[in-house]
Each structure stands twice: as structure tokens, then as C-alpha cells.
Amino acid sequence: MLLQALLCVLAACYELAATLSASSDEQKGDGKDVTPLLLVSFDGFRADYLEKYQFPNLQKFFSDGVLIHHLSNVFTTKTFPNHYSFATGLYAESHGILASRMYDSEAKEFFTVHNSSNPLWWNEATPIWVSVQNWNYKSAAAMWPGTDVEIQNRTPTHFLKYDSKVRFNERLENITKWLTEDNLVKFAALYWEEPDNTGHKYGPENTTMMAKVLKEVDDHVGFLMDHLNQTGLWGKINVIITSDHGMVQCSEDRLIKLDDCVDPKSYILVDTTPVAAIIPLNDSADLYKNLSNCNMHMKAYMKAAIPDRLHYRNNKRIQPIILIADEGWTIVQQGNLPRLGDHGYDNSLLSMHPFLAAQGPAFRKGYRMNTINSVDLYPLMCNLLGIPEVPNNGSFTNVRCMLLKEKCSDLAAVIGIVIGAFIVLTTITLLFRQLKNRERSSSQPFARLELEDDDDEPLLE
Q1: How far apart, in whole angstroms, are the C-alpha atoms of residue 168 and residue 191?
Q2: Is 161 part of any domain?
Q3: pTM summary value
Q4: Is residue 441 part of a domain?
């Protein structure tokens, strides 16, 4: 009886969920009236800055929209890997932009942030601006990493070559010009270097300098809202504001010097702190053993043993030995501390997490979530733009509740109904069994008395 009742409830819930899903699909439309999307990244905006500092403009932005308190980003928690993960929905091992410095043994080339224009580094994935153009729309970008590179023989329709001297306002004005003058521009991306630069220079624990730069960032958000309003775009486009990673304080007393542990002639250092990529020149087993015992605040991994959760193993550009420093520790060959603040550490650390906020006609009002994965942003953007996803590591299911058209509250109610029904039916069944047991226990003495009377009769004879 209990099983049958539960099956009936589950069947009803499944039917309701299917109805909601069908209703959601009907609202997707045919793509003719696609609302443009603007993606903005403030580099190095650690999630808990929102709790420690005042952001009146940013608060105004997400108060009537969506706020994701923590974005679980990809490893390594560096600028280039994470910005390309936003654009592709892929982990670093899948899209190929693994770090700020890389070496490709087949091409025999080095990649740095200043030497990144060769398409061979980027062509392992299809960024969203290429997909947008493949769908016969146009795209625009203001200095977003990778947008000045011909990926799969294409750049965004409109883009600015990277120049750190170009002000935020000028970058945004170019974006809004392209959006207003060409209604086929459906996707735009804007990148800004702060508060990353200040975090590196002074460290996130320097509250005086961080308060100053974060006020500037908030002023930029204010300008963004005002400028979108003046150009007639506010309320007519969807806007996502986020960041690529957080920041942690470093110090001279948390320094790991590799050349104090191993012979400098025994290896090539491709990438440094806090994730160091090592190419052994002699016996890799011996080098690995020495590096493993180098410092208790640094873990050494042979490539094949890198933990699965990091999604950082299956790519030819990942070097034979990877070193990962503990939070706040710095790896160098020799020398002094290069910077007071850094990132790139294990992506499970909260200090490495950024935030995400969204505003626009597609988003819920006043909606809050604790966390999503950064790779989930890609399927969300594809859904907003009405374009098909290419294979990726994200999941639209994880972010669908951010959108007005998705009936997420009802889905939660369905789950609640199932749990509630199970509890009620279980309670009723237990009560029913208890009542039956009581009936049996109360009737049994009479049966025994009758039997005893029958047994007594022969004795009386």
C-alpha cells in the first residue's frame, strides 16, 4: 500500500515537472528577438570583498537582479585560464589555456600573457563569440583575453587590441557604440584589470589601498548603469558582472626556494608560483622525490597523479611534474618575494573564489544563490542568446533558476511534496500497524479464555 501510494505521488510529480519543462521550452522562442548580452569582468575581485567593503552601485545593480555569492572557478585560478573557461564552458585541461606561462613541446613555443597571439594556443576550443558569429549574429569585445586572436580564423566582429592605458569608460563607450549602431551585435565582453593589479602590489590585507581601488571599481559599475541608461540600453540588454579569481596575502616568511632543494641544472621551470610547471632534464623520479621533500607547504605531483577534482591532467601542455603551493605560500627558484598578493592556488579555497551578479529582462529580481561553477556560465549565456552549446563541462541545470522563464520555485515545491508525502505516508503506515497490533493484543486474551474453558470441561467430567 505504501509503495503504491509513493509511486502515485512520484508519477504525479514527474508529470508536473515534465509540464513545467515543456512550458519552459516553449518560451525559448525562435531566436528572432534575441536580447543582447554584456559580460563584464573585474579581474581579481575576491568574493568576500562584498562583505568587507561598501559597494553602493554594485549593491544597486544586483538588488533588483541576481547575486551568486561564490563562483567555484577552474584550476589554475589564473586570469587567462578562467576567462577562457567563461567563454567556452571548459576546464583548463580541455580548452588548453592552462596558465599564464605554458610550453608546447610539439610546437616548441612558449606562451606568456605578453606573447599570446598565436592561434595554436586557443584553437582547442570554440569561444562563445565565435559561436555567436557562426549563428549569423555579431560580437564585440573590449580587451577580453583571447578576443584579439584569430581563433578558428575568426575574431569578434568588433574588438579592441589590449592596451592597459585605455580607461574603463572608453572601453565601455566603444561597447555601447557597437551595440546601439548594429542590432546584430548580440554578445559583448568587457575586461578591466582592477582590483587585481592593486591586490598583487599591496596584498588584499592592505585595507587602505584595497578600499581605494574597490571604490573605483564600484564607481565604474555606477558609470556602467548610468551610461547604459543614457544610451537606451538599460533594461533592454542582459548584463553579467563577475570576476576570474580571488586574491590571497603573501609574505617573505612563506617563501619556497626550489634551488635550495634541487640542482638548478636538473630541470626547466616553465611556470612559477603558486603552481609551478617542471620539465625534468635528468632522472624525473629522483627530481620528483627531492621536490616532494622540499617543503611541507608544497605538494609535488607527477602528471598522471594530479587529483581528478582539479581537471588538470589530460593535456599535452601540462608538464611532467606540477608543484602546488599551500594558500599564501610562494614558489620561486631563488630570490625574494615577487608580489604581496597572489592567486592561482587550489580552486577549492574560498580566497580564490570570485562572485557573479546579473541584471536584465531575463533575470529574476532579488534572487540569491550560494555558489555555481564558473563553467556553468557558458550554457547560461548560450541559453540567453538562443544559440546551441558546443560540448562543454558546464550544466544549464545548475543556473536555470537565475532566469525568470524557468519555473524553479515550482520544481522546489515538487521536491517538497515528494518528501512531505513520503513522511506522511510513512507515519500513517506506522500508525495503522500500531493500531492493528493493539487490536490483536486486546482480542487474544478472550481467545485464550475460551480455549481454557473448553479444556476445563473434561476435567469436570
Answers
A1: 8
A2: yes
A3: 0.84
A4: no
